[in-house]
Structure formats: structure tokens, C-alpha cells
Specification:
481 residues, 2 domains, 18 strands, 35% helix, globular, binds adenosine-5'-diphosphate, binds alpha-D-glucopyranose
């Protein structure tokens, strides 16, 4: 199969959260199945090692309105596998900034441009994909283009698949994008892409893609409800027959404690003694007291409402004050949340450490060095960190929502076969209960080790996910009219 992915993030070149990891992992797995896979992403100013990229198309005229000079870009490339390449859309005015999602005025234009450029690159190269797989809101108007403006081109027979990694972010932007993409005016209708007087990118993708997927079976159910639907549940219900949830996987080349180069010592499920060395290393690095007898709980996260970390704030001091836990957080986002967590670390300097910012090496060290990993999400489409935690023998403490509910099996005193601690309510008392459970589990090292073993033997592979995506691609191809 010829498969084109279009994504605003692609690890290791660009990553703001799990999306970059998910697309990179899936592309690798599809290529390993023998398919021809290309993935298109913008060439942000922050993309490392740009000198290593080759040129695929020196000057591509992209089919958008406006100044022809501004509508031209260069397409760079790098090989990922024998039949897989990453293509980067180089356009300094749109993507030259270092941030992936900068607060730029032309956000609608810059978001559409790389998707349109991806289609035009395929046409220019006469490489016609069987499936065009779009990721999240920035790519939402591509299935709309394929059903309208691009219908009469060679791409008119390509199937489209949209994966929703996060329904909260929809791209509700100016209707000026309609003439920019040469889209027909009739699309500006409440049953189409119109929304509150603007254009809703994700809604366009939901209505026009041949198949819609999201990143876990539970989230696929949740988004059909008003509670989790962010206003689009009605349109998702219309597409229910074409909606599936496919769990993300773990890229074991990146997230494997036996080979991870970021760690003080490597370890595996058979020999966990070196995990203790990772804990000590992390404690030293963060100036925490080097205690091995109390659990170290970690967080690596975007600090936004989704992640529910505001709900943990009133709870953590109770445990830190009594010396029951140590705590480390790495993240950035909402300034109030950042400040509140910084204050927590100031108040408990021996037992809590907070690092604001993005730091990939530290993220790996936290996964390895902690005993538990906290994810009290209000909603979680899939979540990768709980999967990484399990692979590292670090017990996830999660709220039963979305992919967290699908991947972590709860431990309790009666059933010793859990892989984590799962709680139901999205509130502080539930988090307090879960941390108490963690302390109880840690106090019996026999039980703790057994949960660690179960967690480490849980398998979430991209190869399994790729096979499910291939089934979805086949049925998308069948529904092309
Ligand atoms: P989301 O995509 O909603 O942010 P996921 O759990 O799917 O949540 O993925 C988050 C990814 O981003 C993980 O790989 C995590 O390690 C990484 N990450 C998040 N915040 C940071 C940070 N501050 N520094 C380094 N990595 C981070
Ligand atoms: C999103 C979701 C997260 C998911 C990731 C990759 O950012 O918030 O739950 O794991 O995408 O699919």
C-alpha cells in the first residue's frame, strides 16, 4: 500500500506531546510491514540537524490563493526506512519560528499550507497514495479538499483517514481560509465546516474523512457523549459506523530501560536492581534526599486542564509533610499551574522537585527513577506516559478514562494481578485515595515487585496498532466512490 501521513509533529524532529511519538511509531511499524509510507510535516525552526535533510522538490507551487511567492515552498526529505521517507515543508514565514504552535496571526493559513503542500508534492512527484492519513485539527481540512477541490485530480481516488488524538483542540478559525484553499462557499454551513461564524477544521475532517479513528477504544466511546464531545459529539455520532479506537504503542527503540542511553544504569524485568540506581541518580540530580524506603512519584506532562494536575495540588502537601512520599514533576504550560508547582517544591525542598520546561533526557530519567507515575487526567485519548511507565517498571496511578482505562489494570489487596492503581472520580479525594493505595503497595515489596513484573510484561506494540490501521485503511479504500 502507498500511505501518506500528514502530521504537525514528528518525533524526533518535532514533538510537543504524544502526537509526534505516535506518528513516528506508526510510520515505522507500517514500513516494517512492507508498505511504502511517507510522512509530511512542517520544517520548524527548531527541527534539529537540518543540514542532514536532502531536497525532494526545490520549488513547489502550492495551490493556495494570494501572492505566488508566498505560495511557494521547498520540500526536504530524509529516509526513515527502505520504503519510508519524512518530507518537510520548508517555508520560513510560516514555520521558521522555533515553536510548533506559536501564537501567530496567520495560524489558519500556516496550518493549511503544509497539508495542501503535501497533496501538491504527491501530484508533482506523481506519487499517488492509496490512503492519506491525517492527524489532529491542523490537517482537518485535507479530507474536505479531497472531496471537493482535489476530487478531479489524481488524488480524487485516494482514501482519507483522520485520527483524533485530542478532541479538545479543533482549530476554530477565520472563514478567510475558504478562499485561501479555493474551497467552495457551500461548505460554510452548520452541517459542514461552519461553527460559531468561523471554520472548524476538525469538524471538517470528521465529516469528510472516509474513516475516523481515535487512539483508544474507550475514548472512541467517550467522544460520542456530550461530556467528552467538546461540542462535536453530534457530528461524531453521525460517523459512528466509521469510527474506531486503536490503541497507541510503545516505540521500544526509544523507550526501553534495557537500552535507554539517558539512564545512569540499564535494567530489565529479570534484573531490577539497577532501577534502584536510577532512582538514586534522579534524587541526586534533583537535590532530593537519597531515600529508598519511601515511594518517589513522578509526573512528566503538559500542564493543562486536561491533565488534572490542579486536582493533585491540594493533596500532595499532606503526604510530603509527613514524609510519606517524594515527588518530582517535569512540565510546562499554564503559568498558574507552573507557579503553584514551583511553590510546592519551595515548600518541600527535600522531598519535592519541580522542573518547568521541556527536557527529553530528564523525562526518560523520571520514567526510570520513579516508583510511581501520576496521571490524574480529566480526559486522556490514549496517553503514552503510562505505557512508558509500565515498560520501565514504574507503576502508573491513573484515572479510569480513555486510554488510561484501556491500558492499566488496577491493583488491590484482593487481586494481585494489577499493573497500576486506577481511580474513578476526577477530584482531589480520589487522588488522595490512590496515593494512599500506592503507599500501601510500596510498603509490601513483594506485592510491589509483582505489580512491577505485570506492568513490564504488558505489551503495547506499534506492530499490533499498525495491523489494525491497515484494516481501517482497507475499508476506507473500499468506501472510496
Ligand atoms: P499528551 O500527548 O497529551 O501530551 P501523552 O502521554 O500521549 O500525552 O504524551 C506525552 C509525551 O510528551 C510523552 O512522551 C512525554 O514524555 C512527553 N512530554 C510531555 N511533557 C514533557 C516535558 N516537559 N519534557 C519532556 N517530555 C515531555
Ligand atoms: C494526544 C493525547 C494523548 C495521546 C497522544 C498521542 O496529545 O492527549 O492522550 O496519547 O495524543 O496519540
Amino acid at each position: 500500500m502507498k500511505i501518506l501521513h500528514i502530521s504537525p509533529e514528528l518525533t524526533p524532529w518535532s514533538k510537543a506531546g504524544g502526537l509526534g511519538d505516535a506518528v513516528a511509531g506508526l510510520v515505522k511499524a507500517l514500513a516494517a510491514e512492507g508498505h511504502e509510507v511517507h510522512v509530511v510535516s512542517p520544517l520548524y525552526g527548531s527541527v534539529p540537524d537540518q543540514e542532514k535533510l536532502g531536497t525532494l522538490i526545490e520549488s513547489l507551487k502550492v495551490n493556495v490563493a494570494g501572492d505566488p511567492l508566498r505560495a511557494t515552498c521547498r520540500v526536504r526529505k530524509i529516509a526513515l526506512a527502505p520504503k519510508a521517507e519524512a518530507w518537510f515543508i520548508e517555508h520560513n514565514e510560516y514555520y521558521g519560528a522555533r515553536e510548533i504552535y506559536p501564537a501567530q496571526e496567520n495560524v489558519a493559513e500556516r496550518s493549511c499550507f503544509f497539508g495542501r503542500a503535501a497533496l501538491d508534492a504527491c501530484l508533482a512527484l506523481n506519487w499517488i497514495p492509496d490512503v492519506i492519513h491525517c492527524h489532529d485539527w491542523t490537517t482537518g481540512l485535507i479530507p474536505v479538499l479531497l472531496n471537493t477541490t482535489a476530487k478531479g485530480t489524481l488524488l480524487g481516488k485516494s482514501a482519507s483517514v483522520l485520527t483524533i488524538h485530542n478532541l479538545q483542540h479543533q482549530g476554530l478559525l477565520s472563514k478567510r481560509i475558504i478562499p485561501f484553499l479555493h474551497l467552495p462557499e457551500w461548505l460554510f454551513h452548520p452541517d459542514e465546516i461552519e461553527c460559531y461564524g468561523g471554520v472548524n477544521f476538525l469538524k471538517g475532517g470528521i465529516l469528510h474523512a472516509h474513516k475516523v479513528t481515535t487512539v483508544s477504544p474507550t475514548y472512541a466511546q467517550e467522544i460520542l457523549t456530550a461530556e467528552y464531545g467538546f461540542g462535536l459529539d453530534e457530528f461524531l455520532r453521525r460517523r459512528k459506523a466509521d469510527l474506531t479506537g486503536i490503541l497507541n504503542g510503545v516505540d521500544m527503540e526509544e523507550w526501553n530501560p534495557a537500552t535507554d542511553k539517558n539512564l545512569a544504569k540499564n535494567y530489565d524485568a529479570k534484573k531490577l536492581t539497577n532501577k534502584a540506581a536510577c532512582k538514586l541518580d534522579l534524587q541526586k540530580q534533583l537535590n532530593l534526599s537519597p531515600q529508598s524506603d519511601i515511594p518517589l512519584i513522578g509526573v512528566v506532562s503538559r500542564l493543562w486542564e486536561q491533565k488534572g494536575l490542579d486536582l493533585a495540588l491540594p493533596v500532595l502537601p499532606k503526604f510530603l509533610r509527613n514524609g510519606k512520599i517524594q515527588f518530582v514533576l517535569l512540565g510546562s504550560g499554564d503559568p498558574t499551574l507552573e507557579n503553584n508547582y514551583k511553590k510546592l517544591a519551595e515548600d518541600f525542598s527535600q522531598s519535592a522537585a519541580v522542573r518547568i520546561g521541556y527536557n527529553n533526557a530528564l523525562a526518560h530519567q523520571i520514567e526510570a527513577g520513579c516508583d510511581f507515575f501520576l496521571m490524574p487526567s480529566r480526559f486522556e485519548p490514549c496517553g503514552l506516559n503510562q505505557l512508558y511507565s509500565m515498560a520501565y517498571g514504574t507503576i502508573p496511578i491513573v484515572r479510569a478514562t480513555g486510554g488510561l482505562a484501556d491500558t492499566v489494570k488496577t491493583w488491590n489487596e484482593e487481586s494481585a494481578d494489577g499493573s497500576g492503581i486506577v481511580f474513578n472520580n476526577s477530584d482531589s479525594p480520589a487522588i488522595e485515595w490512590a496515593i494512599n493505595q500506592a503507599i500501601k503497595l510500596y510498603s509490601s515489596q513483594k506485592d510491589f515487585k509483582s505489580v512491577q513484573k505485570t506492568a513490564m510484561s504488558s505489551q503495547f506494540s506499534w506492530s499490533t496498532a499498525a495491523k489494525e490501521y491497515l484494516r481501517t485503511y482497507k475499508s476506507a479504500i473500499q468506501s472510496v466512490s
